[in-house]
Structure formats: C-alpha cells, structure tokens
Amino acid sequence: MSRRVVRQSKFRHVFGQAAKADQAYEDIRVSKVTWDSSFCAVNPKFLAIIVEAGGGGAFIVLPLAKTGRVDKNYPLVTGHTAPVLDIDWCPHNDNVIASASDDTTIMVWQIPDYTPVRNITEPIITLEGHSKRVGILSWHPTARNVLLSAGGDNVIIIWNVGTGEVLLSLDEVHPDVIHSVCWNSNGSLLATTCKDKTLRIIDPRKGQVVANNFEEPVALQEMDTSNGVLLPFYDPDSSIVYLCGKGDSSIRYFEITDEPPFVHYLNTFSSKEPQRGMGFMPKRGLDVSKCEIARFYKLHERKCEPIIMTVPRKSDLFQDDLYPDTPGPEPALEADEWLSGQDAEPVLISLRDGYVPPKHRELRVTKRNILDVRPPTRPPRSQSASDASLSQHTLETLLEEIKALRERVQAQEQRITALENMLCELVDGTD
Fold it and tell me: Which parts of the chain sit beneath pLDDT 70?
C-alpha cells in the first residue's frame, strides 16, 4: 500500500488575515477610472492611492500610521490636467513618487515627512515624450534615477529623472497597446505583455526582443471565468506569487519551485467585498517579529484595508529561513553606468533587527546624474554630545513652531470663509 508523500515547504501554511477595523483607512474616494493598474502604491513610510478629483487628476499620500477616517479636506497631490492612471514609489528614496496620467505626462514628486497644509501642486520634474496617455510606470530596481514609462502610443521610454533626459525609446517593438511591463531582478531585461497576446523578453539597451512566443507553458492553472484584470505580485525571497483579480474578492497564492510540477497551490484568502485595486508592501516594510511575509493594501470603494500574510511560528526569535537578505534602498548603479552596459545585483540588507527608514532626503533635479545629497551616516567625530543635544532641541523647537503656524493658518482660513459667508448674506440682503 503506497503512502502519499507530503511536499516539504516552510510556506505550505501561509495564512491571510484582514487588519482590525481601526487599522484601515476610511473615507477615501478611490478613483473610478477604468484602467488596469493597481491604483495603489505603498512603501515603508507612505500609502498612496489614486482618488477621484475634479478638474484633473490627483492622488492622496498618507503616512502609514495615519489610519482611521481621513479628513475630506486632507491635502492631495495634484498637477495633472487629466486622470492619474498609475503611481510608483522610487525604490531608492521613500519620499519620491512618480505619477502617470491621461494627459500624456509623467510627474515626479517629493513627499515631505510632515503633513502639508495645502495640496502639493508642484512636481520636482515633469517628463514629456509620449504622444498619448501614459498608463504604466516602473522604476529600475538597481540603477538610481532610472524610470520606465509605457503609453498608449505603444512606446516604452526609459528616463534619467535626475536630468529629465530620455535614455532610451523603444518605439518599434510593440505593434499594439502594451498591457504590462516588468524588470528582472537586476534590471538588465524587461518582460512585457501586449494586446497582440504575445509575451516579450526585451533587452532595452539593445532595443531587441530576445525571447517571445513561448509555445508551451511550464504550468497551466485555471483561475476563474470572470473577465476582471489579474494583478500578480511576486516575492522572490519566498518564491511565492500572489494573484489578485480586480473585481474579485480573493487572493490566491502559489509557490514556485524548480522541479515539476513547478507551481504549487498554497491557499486562498477570501473576503466579502471585491477589490478595486491592490498595493504590495516591499519586504523591508514588514513586521518580522510577527512572522509577516507579505502585506497587501486592498482598495474598496471608500476605504483601504491592510491584509497580512503570516507563517505562524511558536518561537519569538528571528526566523532566518523566512527572511533572507532582501533588496534595500541603496542603488547599485548610477544611470549612466547602467546605460553604458553595466549590470549589478540589488544591494541587500538584513531584516534581523527590522528595517528603519532613512531620514528625509531632498530630491534635486540637476544636469548631473544625482537626485539627492546624501547625509552622513553618523555625526563627525568632532561633534560633542552637547552639540547633538542642542541640535535635537533645535529640531523639536522648529517642529513646534511649524505646528503652531499650521494651526494659525487653518484658523485664519476658517475666519476668511466665515467672513465671506457673512458678506454674501449682506449682499443678498441689500438686493
């Protein structure tokens, strides 16, 4: 009598759970634009969501800790003259985000660590080169300042954001609308899907397709019969692919291995309400103390709900097997180095002590290939403890003054509104 052999894998038991109600983000008017992007982008500091906006396009950026009800007057990031279709955080600077719009432009924004009083309306740089709407954005995984965009003109443009220049333009590769674009781990190749139902592997620096028209799939998995767009998210550290369908109410996840049958079904997280979009937290933004291996940000019609994936463990110690070294925020190459033909694997970091985001760094657009000036990793040796204490005191004083000024501005705005209303009543009375 034969006995069934159970496949050995530490990810056979991955469980999904929605965060508590007070950890969700409420009263957000999620965009109703019919587009195939995820409408949501997240990093260890911020959550960004494309929202409904009159007279153009906008998205909202919230600190991760700002859960609960979002004030209807909360400042937005505005500037596009048509709906925003895609947003993507820079992997090498958690305060920098790019947005693509139906107005054919890409805008790159610097998000402050403090909550702004008014809408953010001035991008650091506007990139213009597409002739039709831009619906896909993707930052290069290892090269600083390199951003990819794909538009309805069937063209892929790769930009040096630090100088605002076009590095490469792939305008003869796709005969029809581009549906999705993805870099490989070191950014040497691109994978694209197109309306012509062809998957292409492209060397962007040569402008050549190096593989396409795969005749037989390695594995075939029927998901469902709905026509909703599938949003795939892949975690290379665990070799797990998560499949989220727009309009669906579930997340299915599979483990990928090197041996047949290659794709192994793990489980399905299901909920009552369908998702309108989905954000995927980078590994360095997870809570390793709770054995969290993935976190999604599910968009509903009026809220965003975190969904946490964990591998239960009894031990309170750091689980080395769940958390191999993972890509950190440090770029491995400069833009001109990558363009010249160099490749480099991502600079890895350990999550043993948890990830601490770096301090805020200004992004500057220059004629050189540099976006920001890096602060020293530690104070100069000549700086005394008293100087450090004084600097901390000065910082706290400035923050308090900014807070007081912000409250004063808000009070004055309310006073102006009240006076305008009184004036309108007087004018109506005299008429």
Answer: 1-6, 213, 223-227, 355-364, 366-393, 427-431
pTM here?
0.81
pLDDT digits (tens, 9 = 90+) for 184-230: 999 999 999 999 989 999 999 999 999 886 777 877 877 665 667 88
Q: Are 116 and 101 in contact (CB under 8 A)?
A: no
pLDDT digits (tens, 9 = 90+) for 51-107: 998 878 999 999 999 999 999 999 999 999 999 999 999 999 999 999 999 999 999
Burial class (CB in 10 A: 0-12, 13-18, 19+), 6: exposed
